[in-house]
Amino acid sequence: MKPRKRQIAPGDPSSAELSARPRNLRTAARMAASQARLTQLEAENAELRRAQADLTAERDGVLALLNQQRAVEPAAVQESERELKAIFELLPVGISILDAERRVVFANSALVDIMGLSNEGLQAGQHRRWLYLRPDGTLMPAEEYASAQAIRAQRAVFDVETGVVRTDGRVAWTAVSAAPVALSSWKVVLVVRDITAQREAQETLAASEQRFRALYAAAQRRERERELLDQVRIVLFHELDLAQVVRKVVEAIAGTFGYAQVSLYLLQGDTLWLQHQVGYTTVIPAIPITQGVSGRVVRSRQPCLVTDVHADADFVGAIAGIVSEVCVPLLDEDRVMGTLNIESTGDVILTQADLELMTALGEHVSLAITRARLYTQVRESEERFRALITDLHVGVLLQGPASEILLYNQQALDLLGLTESQLLGKTSLDADWDVIHEDGSPFPGPTHPVPRAIASRRPVNDVLMGVFRLNTQSRIWLLVNANPQLHPDGSVRQVICTFMDVTARKHAEDALRQSEHLLQESQIVANLGSYLLDITSGLWTSSEVLDTIFGIEKAYQRSVSGWVALIHPEDRQAVSDYFMHEVIEKRAYFDRTYRIIRQNDGALRWVHGLGRLEFDAESRPVVMYGTIQDITERKQAEQRAFELALERERIALLSAFVQNASHEFRTPLTIMQTNLYLLERLTDPLKRQQKRAQIEQQIVGITRLVDMLAEVVRLDSHAPFTFQPTDLNVLLSDVVVTLAQRVAASRLTLQLMAAPDLPLAPVDADRLRVALRELLDNALRFTPAGGRVALRSARVAGGVTIEVQDSGPGIPSEMQPYIFDRFYRQDISHSTPGFGLGLPIARLIVERHGGRLEMESQPGEGSLFRIVLPL
Prior knowledge:
six-stranded antiparallel beta sheet; alpha+beta
C-alpha cells in the first residue's frame, strides 16, 4: 500500500482548523461541534469566524504576556548584574576563582593590580611560572599554596601569607584566603587583600545581558498553535530547570500534535548528546556532527525536511520503519546549541507544514533552553557571590540613603565587634560610635566615608579609621571604602561600604617610623650617610648625615657631575671605571674606598661607599641606593699603624742584617789578624809568603761579601732595571766563558744546552748575568770533582726557562724551605763555603723581572734551579 501523506492544507478558516489534528479533549470537542454544523454552511462559517477571532484574541493575549515577562526579566538580570559588578569592583581585595586544575577562571581588577599581570596573563597561567615566597622569604612549594590547602582539606583556609615575585622584580606580599566550592566549573575561591574589582564577573554578566536582549527580540515571533503555545508558556514561565525544560518541551510536542517520534539533542564539543525522547524503543545516545541528518543541520545551521529517508545518504535511524524526518537547529544567536527532531513511520509523511511548525517551535525551545541556562548561571553567580561574601576576610555593609545599615556579612560583625541586633538599622551618624583619626583626634559621624559618599554622590576610598570594639575593649584600625549606587535621577539608592582590618599594618608602620628614627640616630653616631641615585635622570638624593660628610648644602646640584666634583681628582677615573665595569656590566655591589674633597672647607676625606643597583624588566639599571661612611680617622689610624709596623720591620731586618753581616766579617778579619801577628814573628820567607797569601785570600772574600751586600741593598731599594730585548743564549754563553777557568781548576764539566728557537726576551742583561753567576757558583761549589753542571734554555708557553742542574749531594728536605733566606747555610757553624746570599740575590733579580725561581732537589741526586721568565 502506498504511504499516505499527512496533510495540513491551507485555505479558509475551517480548513485550517481541521488540519490541526487535535489530540486533547478541548480541541476534539471543537472539531466535533464543527462537523455537526457542516450541514448548515452559513451558520458553520459564522461560528468558525467567531472561533477564529477567539483564537486570534487568545493568541494575542499570550504574546502580550510573553512580551511583558520578557520585558521584566532583562531588567531584573541587569539590576542583579549591576549590583554584582559594583560590589566586586569596590572590594579592596583580590578575588580569583580556580577550576579543578587550578586554572584561573575568574580574577578581578584589584588582583591584576596586585599581581602586576594582565587578566589574560593570569588566565593563560603566566603566574604559574612566577616565584611564590613563604613569610620567611624562602620559596613556597605548591602544596603550601592557599588553593592547594583548601582543596586538600576541603574547607576554607584563611590568611596564608604569600610573597609574589612580580615581573618587575618587586615582591608583592599578600594575605591569601581560599575556600573550596562545588559550583559548576568553579572549585576554589581565592581572596587576596586590597582587591576591589571583579572584571571577569562584569564581562560575564554583560555578555549574559546582551544574549538575553537578543532572546527577548526572538521571543516576539508568533506561535503556530494555541495548544502548543500554552505548553511552551508553561515551560518558559514556570520551569527554569534545564532538564525539566527539555522533558516538557519534547512531551508537549508529542502530546499536542501526535508526533510518534520526538527527540532533542544538545551539542557538547563536536557531538550531539540525547537529552530526552518520546516514541523510541532504542536510541542513539550520541551523534557526531560529521554524521546523520542532525550533523548536517548543525554544520549548516539550517532546518531540514527529509520526506524519504531512504533517499538520503546521511540518514541514520535509531529504529526500523522510519520514512521521513524533520530536524531543526536550536540556536543561541548564531551558535548551535542542539537539534529538535521529529520522525514518522508507516504511511505518515512529514511535509513542509511540519517543517515550518518545527522551525517556529525550535525558536521558542531555543529561548527556553537559553533562559534556563541563563537562570542557572545567575543562580550559580548569586551562590558564588554569597559564598564569597561569607568567606571574604573583608567586612561588607549595604547602607541606605540615610546611611542606615540594611545588609552585612559575618566578617563585618566580627570586625566591628557587634551582634546582628546591635548592627542592623544602625547608621553612620549614631553618636555611640567611638571612632578616631590616625592622629588620635575624634572622627565625627558626618565625616565618616558613607555620609561623605552620600553627600558628594562620589566614591570615598582608603579612609583609615580607629574603631573601638566593645566586645574586646580594644581599638581596631580599618581601611574603609564607600561607593554610592545612584537612581536614574541621580539620587542615592544605596551605598556599598567595604572595610578591612589593617591594625597589624598600622602597628608595623608605627614601628617602622620608630625604626627609621633610630636608624637616623645610628647613622649620625657612625658618621654613615645614605643616598638614592635615579639612573635615568642622573639625579640623587642624600641624607642629612651624607650632606655633612660631603660638606654640601640643600641647594647643591645633586647630579652626576655634582657627584663627580666631590671625588678627589686623582680617584675620579678609577671610581668611574670601577662603577662602569664592576657595577653596571658585572652587576656587582658597589664596594670601594676612595677620597673626596669636602666642599665647605676643602678638606681631603676618605670614604667607604656601598651600593646596589636595581634593574627593570629589560635588565636596564634604573636606581642605585647605598651608604657612604667617612673613614678618614680610621684611615689615618691605619696609616700610622702601617708606618709603625713598617718601621719595626725595617729595624728587625736591619738588626738581623747587621748581625749576620758582622758574623761574616768577623771570621775573615780574625784570620787576617792572626796571620798578621804570625807574619811579624816569622823569619822563614816561604812561611811568610803563605801567610800573605792567606791574608790576600780573606781580602778577596771580604770584597766579594761587600759586593754581595751592596747588591742586596740595591735590590731592596728597588733600584731601576734597564729592560731590553736580549738573546738569552748569547748571555748564557758569555757566563759560561767567564767560568771556564774555575770549572777546569775544579775538575768539573759545565755543559751549555741552548734551545735553537729561543726568542728575544725583555731583560736587564747585567742583572740577569749576576743571578746566573750566583746559581752557577752555588752549583760549582757543591759539586764534587769529576761532577757535571748543566746550563739549559727552553721555550715554554708564555715565556722561557733557564735551568741550572748539578750532580752534587742535593739539599736535605728539611732545609729546602730556608735556602732562599739571607745568610742561610746548611750548617750552623757556617763551615760550608759561601755567605748564604747568592740564592736570595738570584731570586730577587728574577722576581724583579716578573718571573719566578723554582727549586727541585733530592738528597744524593743533585739539585735543579729553574728561572721562569715571561715574554
